[in-house]
Amino acid sequence: MPTIQTLSGAAEFSYTGSCAEGFYLEYTGRPFVSSDLIDQILQMFNGQEILGGFNVSNPSGFGLWLQENTEFTPRHGSHIAAVMVHEGRIGFRQEGKRIYLQFKA
To answer: Quick check: pTM over 0.85?
Structure first.
Protein backbone atom coordinates (compact mmCIF):
# COMPACT_ATOMS: atom_id res chain seq x y z
CA MET A 1 0.00 0.00 0.00
CA PRO A 2 1.85 3.11 -1.21
CA THR A 3 1.80 6.24 0.94
CA ILE A 4 2.19 9.39 -1.14
CA GLN A 5 1.46 13.12 -0.94
CA THR A 6 -1.01 15.23 -2.83
CA LEU A 7 0.72 17.18 -5.60
CA SER A 8 0.89 20.33 -3.48
CA GLY A 9 2.55 18.34 -0.71
CA ALA A 10 -0.16 19.47 1.72
CA ALA A 11 -1.48 16.02 2.67
CA GLU A 12 -0.16 12.49 2.89
CA PHE A 13 -2.40 9.49 2.17
CA SER A 14 -2.28 5.84 1.21
CA TYR A 15 -4.04 3.92 -1.52
CA THR A 16 -4.61 0.27 -2.33
CA GLY A 17 -4.73 -1.03 -5.91
CA SER A 18 -3.63 0.68 -9.09
CA CYS A 19 -4.86 2.83 -11.96
CA ALA A 20 -4.99 -0.30 -14.14
CA GLU A 21 -7.18 -2.25 -11.69
CA GLY A 22 -8.91 0.54 -9.79
CA PHE A 23 -7.87 1.75 -6.36
CA TYR A 24 -9.18 2.64 -2.91
CA LEU A 25 -8.21 5.91 -1.28
CA GLU A 26 -7.38 4.88 2.26
CA TYR A 27 -9.14 7.57 4.26
CA THR A 28 -12.63 8.20 5.62
CA GLY A 29 -15.23 6.47 3.49
CA ARG A 30 -12.53 4.57 1.58
CA PRO A 31 -13.72 5.76 -1.87
CA PHE A 32 -13.06 3.45 -4.83
CA VAL A 33 -11.77 4.91 -8.11
CA SER A 34 -12.46 2.50 -10.97
CA SER A 35 -10.09 1.80 -13.82
CA ASP A 36 -12.95 2.81 -16.14
CA LEU A 37 -12.95 6.29 -14.58
CA ILE A 38 -9.17 6.55 -14.98
CA ASP A 39 -9.55 5.59 -18.66
CA GLN A 40 -12.35 8.14 -19.08
CA ILE A 41 -10.18 10.87 -17.53
CA LEU A 42 -7.23 9.98 -19.77
CA GLN A 43 -9.43 10.08 -22.88
CA MET A 44 -11.20 13.29 -21.88
CA PHE A 45 -8.01 15.28 -21.34
CA ASN A 46 -5.70 13.50 -23.79
CA GLY A 47 -2.91 15.81 -24.99
CA GLN A 48 -3.95 18.70 -22.73
CA GLU A 49 -2.51 20.53 -19.78
CA ILE A 50 -5.28 21.57 -17.40
CA LEU A 51 -5.54 23.34 -14.07
CA GLY A 52 -5.97 20.95 -11.15
CA GLY A 53 -8.61 23.21 -9.59
CA PHE A 54 -8.88 21.21 -6.36
CA ASN A 55 -10.34 24.03 -4.22
CA VAL A 56 -13.64 22.70 -2.88
CA SER A 57 -15.26 26.14 -2.51
CA ASN A 58 -14.12 27.37 -5.95
CA PRO A 59 -13.26 24.38 -8.16
CA SER A 60 -12.01 24.68 -11.71
CA GLY A 61 -10.32 22.52 -14.32
CA PHE A 62 -9.99 18.87 -13.28
CA GLY A 63 -11.67 19.39 -9.90
CA LEU A 64 -14.71 21.00 -11.49
CA TRP A 65 -14.95 18.28 -14.15
CA LEU A 66 -14.92 15.58 -11.45
CA GLN A 67 -17.56 17.43 -9.42
CA GLU A 68 -19.87 17.83 -12.42
CA ASN A 69 -19.37 14.39 -14.00
CA THR A 70 -18.76 11.92 -11.16
CA GLU A 71 -19.62 11.30 -7.52
CA PHE A 72 -16.21 12.69 -6.52
CA THR A 73 -15.36 16.14 -5.17
CA PRO A 74 -12.40 18.37 -6.06
CA ARG A 75 -10.79 17.15 -2.80
CA HIS A 76 -10.92 13.60 -4.15
CA GLY A 77 -9.43 15.00 -7.35
CA SER A 78 -6.26 16.06 -5.58
CA HIS A 79 -5.79 12.48 -4.42
CA ILE A 80 -6.80 10.86 -7.72
CA ALA A 81 -4.35 13.10 -9.62
CA ALA A 82 -1.56 12.26 -7.16
CA VAL A 83 -2.09 8.52 -7.72
CA MET A 84 -2.10 9.03 -11.49
CA VAL A 85 1.19 10.96 -11.29
CA HIS A 86 2.70 8.39 -8.89
CA GLU A 87 1.90 5.62 -11.37
CA GLY A 88 3.25 7.56 -14.35
CA ARG A 89 -0.10 8.01 -16.09
CA ILE A 90 0.12 11.83 -16.16
CA GLY A 91 2.65 14.54 -15.37
CA PHE A 92 2.26 17.79 -13.50
CA ARG A 93 3.87 21.12 -12.86
CA GLN A 94 3.38 23.68 -10.14
CA GLU A 95 3.28 27.42 -10.71
CA GLY A 96 3.01 29.17 -7.36
CA LYS A 97 0.06 27.51 -5.66
CA ARG A 98 -1.48 26.34 -8.94
CA ILE A 99 -1.11 22.73 -10.02
CA TYR A 100 -1.31 21.89 -13.72
CA LEU A 101 -1.96 18.33 -14.85
CA GLN A 102 -0.24 17.19 -18.02
CA PHE A 103 -2.00 14.53 -20.05
CA LYS A 104 0.30 12.95 -22.61
CA ALA A 105 -1.01 12.54 -26.15
So the answer is: yes
